[in-house]
Amino acid sequence: MRRYASWLLLALLSPPLLAASPDGVVAVSHPAAAAAGARMLAAGGNAIDAAAAVQFALNVVEPQSSGIGGGGFMLIHLAKTGETFFVDSRERAPIAASPDMFSPGGQPMPFPLASTSGLAVGVPGTLRGIDTTLARWGTMTLADTLAPAIELAEHGFRVNRFLAADIANDGGRTLIHPETAAIFRPGGVALAEGDWLVQPDLARTFKRIAAQGPDAFYRGPLAEALVEAQRRTRSELGAAGAGRMALADLRGYQAAIRSPLYGRYRGWTLATMPPPSSGGITVLQMLGLLERFPVGDASHGYGFGSPKTLHVMIEAMRLGFADREMWSGDDDSVTVPQRALLHPGYVAMRAARIQPDRRMDTPLAGDLLPWDNKARGSQRMPRARQESPHTTHFSIIDRWGNVVSHTSTIEFTWGSGITVPGYGFLLNNELTDFNFVPASDPASGNPGANDVAPGKRPRSSMAPMLLLKDGRPVAAYGSPGGATIINSVFSVTLNLIDHGMSLQQAIDAPRLSVTHAAGKVDCEGGAPFMQPGFSIATQDALRTLGHPAPGEVGTNGCEEAIGSVQAVAIDLATGAQHGAADPRREGTVIRVSPTAAPGR
């Protein structure tokens, strides 16, 4: 414990947001998890080793957002070979899943009931994904990387304001299931900021995995307990709400290695997550939609936060999300027309709908036939879907230049709310990311890209991003936030490329978000660090253009908190490594100067 405490002290004493070092940097949403990653780097480990330690530690200190009961996407760039790829540990639907399981009799289940029942639980992939990365590209053992998390769970940590707020405002999710209530509301009293949280069941689970490997999770008593736990249902749903996962689903889970989806924007290259995430392709499409506008040119009215800039950003979001709803899903199950969606001709056709002086009518998904003869567009209104603002993201670079940027989740805040009895970790409710009512319609051409199917991965919004110049990595970043992930990553990219901001400025700047073609505008401005803010005059100008901006005319409606971006960067001229963390959570950057034997 003393060894870990020294690294936690370093995290607390380090400059909280920005740091530069040639020897490795971690940027994480929680200081204790940042310290876990720094410990691996200082011991001679590489970015993959550090990422494993950070992920396990986040399971302890941000249990409401991610953990071994969930999944994620890990971007990895290997400096020695120049390779960039993703490890996809997204949860899968069990083999017994069916397209109508959330709409028995044709009527969709109420989201609050479905999402807190075992029916919502997907086959978890986080542990299999982490083990895969360590075995192939790491230098440390699974047990090594679990050590900091075991210490945190066994000896405890102080609850921060972020976790305390999520317990207090949990919508009942920590009350519904007794094992979860016992951890976070002991004796019926919600843990508050500053309380000490010890998780002995989780510590024992991590020790079991450290000793026996990932099969301790995917087979045997733990797997049996997990399957039994997800059979829980809400009384209002009856047997229809029981989970469908079987032991065979756990035994058969494997992480996937995927090539990035690449895009270009104003001379820069971006590498991001392909389907089953909609995040990467939607960000790239929205960037393409804006390329004809002089974003960043204040002399033409397109400076940061100006009405013109925000207007075209909003319109790009509306078009991107209309296509996302129709076409994005698990490409392993339903072909996603990726090339067509990013084809310059298609993007130009969609961009032509953006008029500088007015809001467009609610856009429908585009017709891809000229660019993909199998994709016939359906003129159906995209449906708004409920997605949590939680999840977590971290970014790491080691002294050799290897980069990891990882977004992981258990979906909604607290996931399903189900804690596996005796094992201390929460189960995801990831299957609620599927369509509740099947959308497949051969007559109209709707492919049902995100309908439930056996073994299928639900559509995600997660979008770890690598920014490159002349083939060399410059920055890696990502964000939590449900569907707003797309808009946070989009905004930071614009801030870096068009507005010439530093990494920290790009993260601190206020964001806006539209996650539905017909939806209202959400925007930030409630914290002093969010500069320059969106003025009331700018908000009124957006209303004049027809946007349903928040608040009344003449008032400040920008009070949201959107995302939590953690980033690392490399100065191509000097080789200096930098990190920047988001003050929207307890973002922490730690500089590392390893002295141990070299890793890779």
Write a structural description.
The chain is an alpha+beta fold and 600 residues long. It is 32% helix and 14% strand. The chain has 19 helices and 18 strands. The protein has a 7-stranded antiparallel sheet with strand order 1-17-16-13-12-9-8. The protein has a 7-stranded antiparallel sheet with strand order 7-4-3-11-10-2-18. Strand 16 and strand 17 form a beta hairpin. Helix 1 crosses helix 2, helix 13 packs across helix 14 and helix 13 crosses helix 17. The chain is globular, with a radius of gyration of 23 Å. It starts with a helix and ends in a 9-residue tail after the last strand.
Quick take:
The chain has 600 residues and is of the alpha+beta class.
